[in-house]
Every structure is written in C-alpha cells, then in structure tokens.
Amino acid sequence: MRIVLVGPPGAGKGTQAALLAKTLSIPHVSTGDLFRANISQGTELGLAAKSIMESGKLVPDEVTIGMAKDRLAQPDAAGGFLLDGFPRNVAQAAALDEILAEWGIELDGVLDLEVPEDEVVRRIAGRRVCRNDNAHIFHVEYHPPVAEGVCDECGGQLYQRADDAEDKVRVRLEVYHTETEPIIEYYQKQDLVTTISALGTVDEVTRRAIEALRKNETQRKNDDEG
C-alpha cells in the first residue's frame, strides 16, 4: 500500500505511522528522517537544506521533494510506503503525483487523523519532558509523574518545551490549517481521503486506521474491477 498520513500537530501521526508501517510491512518515511539522513550523509540535497536552515530560512519545496523522490526510489519502498509529514502543502502533493505518475504507480489512500483543536492544545501543552533525557515524556493529565515536576525514571526535573506552550501550539495549528490542511481537499477530489477520529487509546486508533485502510483498499479494487 502507498499511503499519505495527514493530521494536525498532536494527532499522534508519528506514533500511528510507525505502528501502521510495521503492521502493513511498508517503510515509514517521515520528513524529519529525510532531513536527518540527508544531512548526516552529506548529500547534495542535505548540504543545501543544512545551509538554508542555518540561515534561518525555510527549506524550499524543491529540496524536500528531491529528498522524498530519492527515498521513494529505494528498493524497500517498491512495494509500498507510508508518508508522514510529506506532502506538506498542495505544491508538494502535486509534485508527488507527478513522481508517481512518472513511475507508473499511484497512491492507494490518504488517511486523515481528525482531532478537535481544543484536544490538540490539551495534548501538547500538557506535555512535560525530563531535562536529563528527552525520551522521558509525561503529561500533566494523561500520564502524570508520581511526584509533580519530577521524572519517574531518573528523578530529573520535568519542564515544558517552549514549542509546547499554548500560544505556540495555536500558531502551529494556524500554520497547519493554512499550509497543510488544503491537501485534504486536493486528495478528496481524487477520492483518496479516509478520515478517522484520532481520539482514544493508541491501540484503538491503530485498529480504526487499519480497518479504514483495508476497507478503502477493498472498495478501490471493486471499483477497478467494476
């Protein structure tokens, strides 16, 4: 299956992408991983991205698209992939369509994780991270530490990252609504979008996602045969 995962910050895209990719036996391709890999390997695109980011500017679409194309051309993606964070806007979505058309393949579906805005703010603004180990993450409501402000794992101090402050979260949501959300309408015109609720436990959302993708796959096959 070839899938694009879409959803606002705080929807759990990274968690769901990893679980869905494992279940479907396809590679999880995230924008963050693309940038880290290209920069660490010193590729031409990676060096360009690093230079642009160090100057404080946004990486242009053509650089991101080039990285995505190179990644999807690798052998492990021949049988399918799950894209997380790409495409980020309509221009990137159109470029992806052109790449896939060039290769004679197409997307199987776009999974839209839907979360109410207030819940997004609650999820992100409530996060607390350990100063000793960023992998130790708690939440003031959903996963509080035993002792307030103290990491259960190592006793380190818990703090709220600057990007997790409510005002910053709302700015990130506005950017999502302006830049990324329009790709949902773009793909709806191709009858590719399936929207599911991202509320509930991780396992509940994963089951919901798998059922939706399987149903969509069956429907598309029936339509093709019809």
TrEMBL record:
One Pfam family named in its UniProt record: ADK
Catalytically driven reaction(s): AMP + ATP = 2 ADP
Start and end residues of each stretch annotated as NMP: 30-59
Primary location class: cytoplasm
Keyword field: ATP-binding, Cytoplasm, Kinase, Nucleotide biosynthesis, Nucleotide-binding, Transferase
InterPro entries, per the entry: Adenyl_kin_sub, Adenylat/UMP-CMP_kin, Adenylat_kinase_CS, Adenylate_kinase_lid-dom, ADK_active_lid_dom_sf, P-loop_NTPase
Positions bound to AMP: T31, R36, K57, L58, V59, G85, F86, P87, R88, Q92, R161, R172
Binding site for ATP: G10, A11, G12, K13, G14, T15, R127, I137, F138, G200
Enzyme class: transferase
Molecular-function annotations in GO: AMP kinase activity
Compartments, as annotated in UniProt: Cytoplasm
Function: Catalyzes the reversible transfer of the terminal phosphate group between ATP and AMP. Plays an important role in cellular energy homeostasis and in adenine nucleotide metabolism.
Domain free text: Consists of three domains, a large central CORE domain and two small peripheral domains, NMPbind and LID, which undergo movements during catalysis. The LID domain closes over the site of phosphoryl transfer upon ATP binding. Assembling and dissambling the active center during each catalytic cycle provides an effective means to prevent ATP hydrolysis.
Name of this protein: Adenylate kinase
Originating organism: Streptacidiphilus jeojiensis
Encoding gene, per UniProt annotation: adk
